[in-house]
UniProtKB/TrEMBL annotation:
Keywords: Membrane, Mitochondrion, Mitochondrion outer membrane, Repeat, Transmembrane, Transmembrane helix, Transport. The lineage of its organism: Eukaryota, Metazoa, Chordata, Craniata, Vertebrata. Solcar repeats lie at residues 165-267. The keyword Metal-binding does not apply. This is Solute carrier family 25 member 46 isoform X2. The gene is Slc25a46.
Length: 272
């Protein structure tokens, strides 16, 4: 990160941020439209059953399929080196995604995997991430609310303290859910990213040195071949390249949550 900031400027650390928001918007929009025109439920009520869960997960699968081309274009924009990348507009992600679908205007090689080959790993990662994060979030939230409820029985609380107890557990639950799902699925995410980038003539930064660029010259035939190749050529640790960045990300996330709680608790004490 220091080398990138020194050679390319701080802007290089934020590249692709706009396209990431666009993909989130496309995902939410696609989920809303599909749920409106189909009987697939967008939310699962407390009175759920296996059929309802299956329909809800089917909605998630269809949503990931629709957003996949734009996710692929956003990923390329995020990892493409600033040294050789032209200044692109904020809507370039949509243009590249549509071009990937119709096969026009997107430079690629014979190594580019067709979108049909990318559906399974993309949907698998998205659905597993959603399932794991949902389960972890509900478990952590249940534990924290039970702990908060017991503390309320032991002592009286002010309205501001009740507000803190109401919202902060949800923040902690979301944090734990994202952390667990990202850590558990990191190897699959590594495979997914390599499959999406292959054949797109992407030039990435050399993260070991910070000032060189490297072409993507992989020859994976699919998800299974990618897994076997990484395991044979790079070992198990090959699936965890870049994992240190995830540790830094969630360390900062935890620090922000803790600082927020300290500030709110200080304000709470001053108001009493």
């Amino acid at each position: 990160m220091y080398s990138f900031n020194k050679t390319q400027g701080p802007r290089a650390l934020w590249k692709g941020m706009g396209s990431t928001f666009i993909v989130q918007g496309v995902t939410l929009g696609a989920e809303g439209i599909i749920s409106e025109f189909t009987p697939l439920p967008r939310e699962v009520s407390h009175k759920w059953n296996p059929k309802l869960i299956g329909e809800h997960l089917l909605l998630k699968c269809l949503t990931y399929v629709v957003a996949m081309p734009f996710y692929s274009a956003s990923l390329i924009e995020t990892v493409q080196s600033e040294i050789i990348r032209d200044n692109t507009g904020i809507l370039e992600c949509i243009k590249e995604g549509i071009g990937r679908v119709i096969g026009l205007g997107v430079p690629h090689s014979k190594r580019l995997l067709p979108l049909l080959s990318l559906i399974f790993p993309t949907v698998l990662h998205g659905v597993l991430h959603y399932i794991i994060s949902s389960i972890i979030q509900k478990i952590v939230l249940l534990i924290l609310k039970r702990k908060t409820y017991n503390s309320h029985l032991a002592e009286s609380t002010s309205p501001m303290q009740s507000m803190l107890d109401a919202y902060f557990p949800e923040l902690i639950a979301n944090f734990a859910a994202s952390l667990c799902s990202d850590v558990i699925l990191y190897p699959l995410e590594t495979v997914l990213h390599r499959l999406h980038i292959q054949g797109t003539r992407t030039i990435i930064d050399n993260t070991d040195l910070g000032y060189e660029v490297l072409p993507i010259n992989t020859q994976y035939e699919g998800m299974r071949d990618c897994i076997n190749t990484i395991k044979q050529e790079e070992g198990v640790f090959g699936f965890y390249k870049g994992f240190g960045a995830v540790i830094i990300q969630y360390t900062l996330h935890a620090a922000i949550l803790q600082i927020t709680k300290i500030i709110y608790s200080t304000l709470l004490q001053n108001s009493i």
